[in-house]
Amino acid sequence: MTAEVVSVGTELLLGDTVDTNAVALGRAFAAAGLSHFHRQTVGDNPKRLRVALDLAFSRSDLVVTIGGLGPTSDDITRELVCDSLGLEMVEDEEIVNHLKSLFRTRGRPWVETNARQAMRPAGSTVIANANGTAPGLVVESGGKMAILMPGPPSEFLPMLTDSVAPILARIGGGELIHSRVLRVVGRGESQLEQDLSDLMVSENPSLAPYAKTWEVHLRLTARANSVEEAKRMIAPLEALVRGRIGEHIYGADKEELEDVVLSQLRSRAETLAVAESCTGGGLGERLTRVAGASDVFQGGVISYANSAKVNVLGVLPEDIAEHGAVSERVACEMARGARDRLHADWGISITGVAGPDGGTLDKPVGTVWIGLAGQGEVAAIEHRFGGTRTTVRSRSQTAALTTLWRRLR
């Protein structure tokens, strides 16, 4: 069975709201074994929404709409699903009474426009909404099925988990889609395609790369009758992938690089401190985002100004004067200073030109030095990152973690 998502809301098109609901729904389709080939986003416009729905029903067996179920005049999903499927709208007296009771309980005045939420396609089934006023609906007509869901995530997600997911499992035919993600650093998407091109022709299980910020995810996916069967199908393919590029794979599935680095340090009974300049504490934030990091992570110094590098970390002023704050020498001294002053086994430092200004001919915007001090050694690596200030800062953090991850291996 093929499924399609139609997300409704002008705010989605304008970028004011990120459609995380459609992401959750895509995962639910995969878990139920439903083929998901198309997804549409359309504003609160009757003509355009009708065109989107007609197209969806013409090519998909199941259409799930998100949003447009509220009480105002721009909430038009119910009406247009009816039009597209050739059904009539009816008022559900039970829903009207429930809404009036709900408004009384909450001490809110009843406005007649709220009764629009009690209108539903003839023959449809109501999905209770425990977290809002607009109920969900299930409609079946002419061999097609539509599931209408509210837009607010606080209403959508509980309804998906409690009510819609079981429906999807029932109509999915027993098969499911299961994926395993291998997380790769130090290897670009095009390089990986060259390394693994012969493995990417497989359809079940399949292998596909997805570029992320400074890393690539390899998604291994299988369609099977159970998760256990899918895992057995994926295992030989994963073994082949690891045999070729295992040195670049730091983790799998939901493991983040900071999780893996902290785990490495924990297994060695070693500690870490950081010194940051251009990233402004971003690396420390990533590390402390991990629960239990305090048994490994000692702390950090945000040495944004040169005076902080000198007075707090012990960087020599003459080295800054001679080599500049963004240099191999200063990166090494920052890493050593963090390690020594915070009494850690390892120190990582980041100093660079994040932009958009401040670059020079020999140190353009995107120039970043990563320093590492530990086990009797101090060294630094230069990087030249492209992109915006935010991208440079993010890539710098990942590069620092990658440097330590490789050293600990």
Map the helices and strands.
Elements: E1 2-8, H1 10-13, H2 20-32, E2 35-42, H3 46-59, E3 62-66, H4 77-85, E4 89-91, H5 93-106, E5 119-121, E6 125-127, E7 136-141, E8 144-149, H6 153-171, E9 176-184, H7 189-196, E10 206-212, E11 215-224, H8 227-245, E12 249-252, H9 257-268, E13 272-276, H10 282-288, E14 297-302, H11 306-311, H12 317-323, H13 328-341, E15 346-352, E16 367-374, E17 377-384, H14 389-408
Parallel strand pairs: 1-2, 1-3, 3-8, 13-14, 13-15
Antiparallel strand pairs: 4-5, 6-7, 7-8, 9-11, 9-12, 10-11, 15-16, 16-17
Helix pairs in contact: 2-6, 3-4, 9-14
Considering the chains and any ligands shown, give keywords for the structure.
409 residues, alpha/beta, Molybdenum Cofactor Biosythetic Enzyme, Chain A, Alpha-Beta Plaits, Maf protein, 3 domains, six-stranded mixed sheet, five-stranded mixed sheet, 14 helices, 17 strands, 26% strand, elongated
